[in-house]
Design brief:
By secondary structure, this protein is an alpha+beta fold. The protein has helices at 3-21, 30-36, 53-62, 130-140, 143-150; strands at residues 27-29, 47-51, 79-86, 93-103, 106-109, 115-120, 123-128.
Length: 162
C-alpha cells in the first residue's frame, strides 16, 4: 500500500472513533496535513493529530489496547504533550494533546490560527492552511521540519478590499 493510500485508509479507520471521542477543536498537522493540502512529493509516515490534553487522554483510554507503549517521541526536551502512538491502523496515528514547544521564552502552546476543513469519509477534518503549516514547521525548528517547510509554497499577501 502506498503511503498516500495508507494515509487515507488510516483516516477512514480512525475518524469514527476520533469524532466520537474528541470534544475540543483538533487538527491534522505535519506531513499528513501537507499531503491533504495537495503539497507534492511529501511521504507521510504517520498521522499527527493536534488536540486538547483532555481529548488525547480520552482517545488513549478508548484505544488503550492499541497504544505503542515502547515508542518514545524524539526531542522530548523540545516538545511536551499528552502523547500516544496508536499502531492498529493502516498508518500509525500520533496524538499530541496540549502540545507545547520549548522556546527562548519557555514553554509555549502550539496553536493553529488559520485552518481549512476537508470532508474525509463524511467527517469534517481540520488542517492548518499551508501558510500556517509553514509557520508551525518553522517554529518546530528541527532539520526535518525546516526541510518540510521549504516544500510549502509561499503565496503573496493580497491586500484586503474594503
Amino acid at each position: 500500500m502506498s503511503p498516500t493510500s495508507a494515509l487515507h485508509a488510516g483516516l477512514h479507520d480512525a475518524l469514527p472513533q476520533m469524532a466520537q471521542t474528541f470534544r475540543d477543536p483538533w487538527w491534522i498537522i505535519g506531513s499528513a496535513a501537507m499531503v491533504l493540502a495537495g503539497i507534492p512529493d511529501v511521504v507521510p509516515q504517520d498521522i499527527d493529530v493536534l488536540c486538547s490534553r483532555r481529548d488525547a487522554l480520552q482517545l488513549r483510554e478508548a484505544w488503550v489496547d492499541h497504544v505503542d507503549t515502547a515508542y518514545r517521541p524524539a526531542d522530548e526536551t523540545r516538545f511536551r504533550s499528552a502523547f500516544a502512538r496508536f499502531v492498529h491502523l493502516p498508518m500509525p496515528v500520533e496524538v499530541m494533546g496540549g502540545l507545547e514547544l520549548m522556546t527562548a521564552t519557555g514553554w509555549q502552546p502550539v496553536q493553529v490560527h488559520d485552518d481549512v476543513r476537508l470532508d474525509i469519509a463524511g467527517y469534517g477534518v481540520r488542517l492548518p492552511t499551508p501558510a500556517e503549516q509553514r509557520r508551525i514547521l518553522l517554529a518546530f525548528g528541527r532539520d526535518k521540519d525546516l526541510a518540510k517547510a521549504t516544500r510549502i509554497p509561499v503565496l503573496p499577501e493580497h491586500p484586503h478590499v474594503a
